[in-house]
Amino acid sequence: xxxxxxxxxxxxxxxxxxxxxxxxxxxxxxxxxxxxxxxxxxxxxxxxxxxxxxxxxxxxxxxxxxxxxxxxxxxxxxxxxxxxxxxxxxxxxxxxxxxxxxxxxxxxxxxxxxxxxxxxxxxxxxxxxxxxxxxxxxxxxxxxxxxxxxxxxxxxxxxxxxxxxxxxxxxxxxxxxxxxxxxxxxxxxxxxxxxxxxxxxxxxxxxxxxxxxxxxxxxxxxxxxxxxxxxxxxxxxxxxxxxxxxxxxxxxxxxxxxxxxxxxxxxxxxxxxxxxxxxxxxxxxxxxxxxxxxxxxxxxxxxxxxxxxxxxxxxxxxxxxxxxxxxxxxxxxxxxxxxxxxxxxxxxxxxxxxxxxxxxxx
Length: 362
Ligand SMILES: *Cc1c(COP(=O)(O)O)cnc(C)c1O
Known about the structure:
Elements: E1 10-17, E2 22-29, H1 35-39, H2 43-54, H3 64-68, E3 76-80, E4 86-89, H4 91-104, H5 112-128, E5 149-157, E6 171-179, E7 189-192, H6 212-224, E8 229-231, E9 248-253, E10 258-260, H7 271-282, E11 287-289, H8 294-300, E12 301-308, E13 312-315, E14 318-321, E15 324-327, H9 335-349, E16 359-361
Parallel strand pairs: 7-8, 7-14, 10-11
Antiparallel strand pairs: 1-2, 1-6, 3-4, 3-5, 4-16, 5-6, 9-10, 9-12, 12-13, 14-15
Helix pairs in contact: 4-5
The protein binds pyridoxal-5'-phosphate.
């Protein structure tokens, strides 16, 4: 599996003290061997070691997070560079969104500088122990479609508590793991689900754990029916495209216009989304952030792709909605989709110049 939990040993942990009005930080070194020794372990031994890295004896089990999904998270990547180094893609954006997400849940927000330092140090300290993927020239042959990277997962856990409540003294943790491509090969078809992910005045714009039960259910149902992803429509009119289970979505229409749903309180403001909008405009593509109906997509859609940290820009060539099926670009990856995917990957892995200063070297 490509999105395994095989956490690296070094974990960042901070805890907010309401009394002190400050965060206390530490780096934990969980049990590990040398990476090559771990690779040689038998299945049961390896599983036990990985589990031991995911267990924390000194954190509360019954909490607002475990009971009510009261927590926020982030996802970002450090990418191996051709010259042997590692660089993180736009971590300042994740730092800001994490801050906004915590504020959105009335938590004491985690300072952006602390976030940047923590993600950088987690990558650096794990790499120093040998836990990191190495750059492979062979990745260039298929535009990094099967390339590895370090996935960073910052998240919050609340203090212990059992009543429905907000978290006043959360923990912030940062764990890391190697990931390869997120979507398995096969026909990239998506199913328009009739489940609802987010509602106006709800928490859809916040990267909060609470949102992902609907996503997991809809994605599971889509997968059972043979689809790689589900697409949500708006909760009110059940007519407008919103996004995927954990990624934003773009459509290129016959007119040439590239459209993605406009942000609001039901759409997660993706950093990949923002980056693609900028890259497409640089290439003189007309990009609109606007309401886009499912009917318009079914009749005018010519290309479709998902956009997110895990997905990159992943082509969707078929869309299924209430028994109707739209096939984009004859079932093949569209030109603009491939261009966006390759441009993004090129910048991220350092084969294209980083003219925007998006990459932060470790
Ligand atoms: C994380 C996420 C995205 C994508 O955001 P990126 O910053 O591009 O990774 C989109 N939609 C949802 C619901 C998400 O959770």
